[in-house]
Design a protein that fits this description.
about 190 residues, alpha/beta, 7-stranded mixed beta sheet, two-stranded antiparallel ribbon, 6 helices, 11 strands, about 30% helix
Length: about 190
């Protein structure tokens, strides 16, 4: 069965990890979650509250990582998902994450990221000359990484499928699953 990799860590947005994890498993893909270490991760919940200038953050679900980044052989996976939350802020500096993400982009494999997940490929220069959605406050990071920020519920740029945040899940996963069905069908 084809395998999909999710790279994440503590303070990732609960919905942005668990929705693609469950949706891709429902579709029939094996899904591994990789993190800085193989431990139980603490996710968070970001919500929008009237009167606040930005989103709020509360403790979310905990979930076990299947393996550490250093253990990942990206050649064994057909696609990559990079959820948002605060995790990408520190993951983008991890040499193993950079190695993993670069493999997927250079191999032209499907990559889905949303929200702050754009920070990871931007930090490695992989958004250069690409169109991408992200959380709007990440637009300067997308631009600094050479990409074009698009404020839309889903942006398809070749094998890269992106969205702004968890409210865009339906459009984001619809496009990503369609791409996976075409590129890495379940036997």
């Amino acid at each position: 069965m084809p395998k999909v990799l999710i790279v994440t860590g503590d303070a990732a947005e609960s919905l942005e990890v668990l929705y693609p994890y469950q949706r891709l498993r429902e579709e029939g893909y094996d899904v591994d979650i990789a993190a800085p270490s193989a431990k139980r991760l603490q996710f968070v919940v970001h919500d929008f509250v009237d009167g606040h200038d930005t989103y709020t953050e509360k403790p979310g679900y905990t979930w076990p990582a299947d393996l550490a980044f250093r253990e990942v052989d990206p050649a064994g996976y057909v696609a990559l998902v990079i959820p948002g939350g605060r995790a990408p802020e520190y993951l983008r500096n991890d040499e193993h994450v950079q190695r993993i993400v670069t493999h997927f982009f250079e191999a032209g494999k499907p990559v889905a990221h949303l929200c702050h997940g754009a920070l990871v490929p931007a930090a490695v220069g992989l958004l250069k000359d690409r169109r991408t959605a992200a959380y709007p406050e990440c637009a300067p990071d997308v631009l600094a990484g050479g990409g074009e920020f698009v404020d839309d519920e889903v942006v398809v740029d070749g094998p890269m499928i992106t969205a702004r945040a968890w409210p865009d899940h339906p459009a984001w996963m619809r496009e990503f699953v369609a791409l996976l069905r075409a590129r890495a069908p379940i036997a």
